[in-house]
């Protein structure tokens, strides 16, 4: 009588479960497959199983040296379901998928599961491997090239944040003028879910950048609605943000750039030398930046 066996794919190798034991391919023969126990090394198990090429007619040639696990098939099916959902449900986190599947596992099989964090780490690796990172590219023919990178999970983080922190860096690949990033607060930490390479610093570039971000969010069924943006004092960025997002958007200037701006004004007025040598003047000058912390 032919017995069908569950087959699970692990990377490029095939793995089967039979009668409470896991096997991996040992040799592929013309009309059959020889399998070795997955614990061959760790438990020095000599077991050899032979099946037909379509995984039927299992015959044990050498017995196992250790006990099997009756829950192994249930565990492997549950892990396969988790991995499937990671690839299918882009907006669900590994932790959410783990919880959803584990709640359906019979209680007697829970003890056969690996450590929870180990399983979640497996799901995170799978999610990061499968998920695309390039979000938007307006093409090499564009006079204002824009390339945006973000994971689907990053778009979710953007949609959940009321405050966006914008930053730009000159350190970027040749051909581009700057690297623009958006940071948000998540779990009491600041993360960077989105990166933009910009060829220019024009208002049109920033408007296209913000428009592309929102359109991609909408395509993924997430709907960002930032109330506050913290950025430097570039008027073209402020104007672009309010054009795309709305006049209700509250702009908060970056304190670092405020200090830079007041220092440039000091130099323009020819007061740098007085600032360096007059303690009273430098003290009162420094208080100008402190005005930013007074309540409105």
UniProtKB/TrEMBL annotation:
Print the keywords alphabetically.
Metal-binding, Zinc, Zinc-finger
Protein's recorded name: FLYWCH-type domain-containing protein
Q: Which Pfam families match?
A: FLYWCH
From which source organism is this entry?
Aphis craccivora (Cowpea aphid)
Task: Give every FLYWCH-type domain span.
Answer: 11-66
Q: Which InterPro entries match?
A: Znf_FLYWCH
Q: Which residues cross the membrane?
A: none
Superkingdom classification of source: Eukaryota
Q: Which GO terms describe its molecular function?
A: zinc ion binding
């Amino acid at each position: 009588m032919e017995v069908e066996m569950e087959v699970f794919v692990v990377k490029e190798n095939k793995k089967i479960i039979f009668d409470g034991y896991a096997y991996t391919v040992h040799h592929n023969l013309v009309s059959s497959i020889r399998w070795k126990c997955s614990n061959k090394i760790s438990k020095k198990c000599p077991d050899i199983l032979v099946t037909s090429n379509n995984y039927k007619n299992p015959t044990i040639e050498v017995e196992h040296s250790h006990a099997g696990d009756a829950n192994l098939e249930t565990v492997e099916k549950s892990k396969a379901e988790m991995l499937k959902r990671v690839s299918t449900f882009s907006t669900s986190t590994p932790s959410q998928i783990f919880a959803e599947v584990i709640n359906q596992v019979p209680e007697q099989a829970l003890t056969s599961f690996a450590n929870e964090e180990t399983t979640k780490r497996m799901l995170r690796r799978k999610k990061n491997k499968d998920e695309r990172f390039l979000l938007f590219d307006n093409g090499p023919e564009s006079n204002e090239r824009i390339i945006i990178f973000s994971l689907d999970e990053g778009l979710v983080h953007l949609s959940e944040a009321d405050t966006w922190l914008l930053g730009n860096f000159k350190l970027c690949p040749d051909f581009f003028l700057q690297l623009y990033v958006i940071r948000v607060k998540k779990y009491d930490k600041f993360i960077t879910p989105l990166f933009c390479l910009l060829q220019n610093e024009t208002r049109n570039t920033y408007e296209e950048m913000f428009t592309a971000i929102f359109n991609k969010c909408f395509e993924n069924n997430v709907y960002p609605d930032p109330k506050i943006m913290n950025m430097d004092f570039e008027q073209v960025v402020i104007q672009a943000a309010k054009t795309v997002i709305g006049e209700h958007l509250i702009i908060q200037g970056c304190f670092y750039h405020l200090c830079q701006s007041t220092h440039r004004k000091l130099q323009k007025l020819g007061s740098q030398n007085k600032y360096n040598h007059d303690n009273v003047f430098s003290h009162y000058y420094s208080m100008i930046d402190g005005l930013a912390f007074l309540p409105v």
